Amino acid sequence: MPDVLSEKALLAMPEADYMNDAQQAFFRALLLRLARDCEQELASARQVLQTPPQSDPLDAAVDEEACRHQLRFLARRQALLEKIRQSLRRINRGDYGYCDISGEPIGLRRLLARPTAQYCAEVKTRLEENERHYAHSRTG
């Protein structure tokens, strides 16, 4: 496998090279690294949950809150891992880096900031505005 681009080299490429083989390899390596880190964090968090607390019964409320915190962490990490896997599947299909709604390029800088992005900034902004409008109209 050829060397993976550096972030600087990636950003220096012309727009016409968007999502070429080298850029796809860069993001595949990044996503695989993120998936591995996420899997390790999940395994560690599960281990903590499987270890029964050795505290005084008076500390049960503290232990219960810590357990709830770990469960929330697990849920967030599990959701992130699924998004990473979806992004890897999009690379394999050849549609990674393009907005799921408009088909426009998401952009390298946005993908560097959020490698699991599915929408270009314009569409994401519109979706968030629609969510706020919907949430506001439901409460008002």
- Put simply, the count of helices is 5
Query: What is the H-and-E element order?
Result: HHHHH
Mean residue pLDDT: 90
* Broad shape: flat
- Biggest sheet descriptor: none
CA distance, first residue to last residue: 57 Å
Share in β-strands: under 5%
Helix fraction, binned, reads 55-70%
Backbone CA Rg = 20 Å
List segments where confidence is low: pLDDT < 50 over at least 5 consecutive residues. none
Number of strands: 0
Write structural notes for this entry.
Helix content is 68%, strand content 0%. It is mainly α. The radius of gyration is 20 Å and the shape is flat. The relative contact order is 0.12.
Compile the SSE list and pairings:
Layout: H1 7-12, H2 21-50, H3 60-93, H4 108-113, H5 121-139
Helix pairs in contact: 2-3
